[in-house]
Design a protein that fits this description.
By secondary structure, the chain is of the alpha/beta class. The chain has 10 helices and 8 strands.
């Protein structure tokens, strides 16, 4: 399982620049949610932080249910550009898109069909960096992703799929629509609860889940209403911890039911 580097705080992007410089990264593909990338201010920060050290290319998509076609298009972009690093900026679906495409690219597969039919136990060729612009999915902390095929949810699992770096900058959460902030926060809370009661829980995962639940209870409402940076940072840390917990246990039956509500009725996940 990938050991993660966590870069947190409002100067996290500066830390990322130094981190990539130290590793000789010269080509970066930014996989971004076309809505939140601009609204969050992550586009300006990313270009300013990385343009002096690397050639940047962007693969933007309109967020929604992640499909095999989305994965195929992103994989093709990686095969053409051949990045040293992939920077996923957005919510859970965007990070899942980058994760699945990076696995296909590393394996030399043309797209999702190969990923769906055979496991991948190798390592990622590009450095994978997750930059969440929501606080809830925990995708920046997990080694699995969700893809919808013909409206049906499928889980993709690969040890290498966990991003090597998670960048937690609370400023990128300030622009979240209120409804998204609520749904994302509830998603993190549900994940923490489910991980805690899971039969696969461990002492470590229960500790992570408990810390996440406490942080969410203390900061959820205030973070939604005031968008105070300290509250947002606490929610971001809680979502990450909940993600780390489900990375150990996976989610349970109640989470599985939610995917059908999203797929068939458009109910926001969380």
């Amino acid at each position: 399982m990938t050991v993660q580097r966590i870069l947190a705080g409002t100067r996290a992007s500066d830390k990322l620049t130094r981190y990539l410089q130290e590793r000789g990264v010269s080509r970066v593909l930014v996989v971004a949610d076309s809505v939140s990338f601009s609204a969050s201010g992550a586009d300006e920060v990313t270009r300013r932080a990385l343009s002096d050290i690397a050639v940047l290319e962007e693969h933007q998509w309109t967020p929604g249910l992640l499909s095999p076609e989305h994965v195929n298009a992103c994989t093709e972009r990686m095969l053409r550009f051949r990045p040293d690093a992939v920077l996923a900026v957005g919510g859970g679906s965007t990070i899942d898109l980058a994760k699945t495409a990076a696995v296909c690219y590393s394996a030399g597969w043309s797209g999702y069909d190969a990923l769906d039919s055979e496991p991948y136990d190798g390592v990622l060729t590009p450095l994978l960096v997750a930059v969440p612009t929501t606080a809830g999915t925990g995708s920046e902390a997990t080694h699995f992703a969700v893809v919808y095929r013909s409206g049906q949810k499928f889980s993709v699992v690969a040890p290498a799929m966990r991003p090597q770096v998670a960048v937690l900058n609370p400023r990128f959460l300030e622009s979240m629509p209120r409804s998204l902030a609520i749904a994302a926060g509830l998603d993190a809370f549900a994940q923490a609860i489910e991980s805690f009661w899971s039969i696969h829980s461990t002492d470590m995962s229960r500790e992570l889940a408990c810390r996440a639940m406490r942080q969410i209870v203390r900061n959820f409402e205030a973070s939604v209403e005031s968008r105070n940076l300290l509250r947002l940072a606490s929610m971001q840390a809680a979502a990450y911890r909940a993600g780390c917990a489900i990375n150990v246990t996976k989610t349970t039956a109640s989470h599985a039911l939610s995917y059908a509500l999203t797929s068939h009725f458009g109910v926001a996940h969380g």
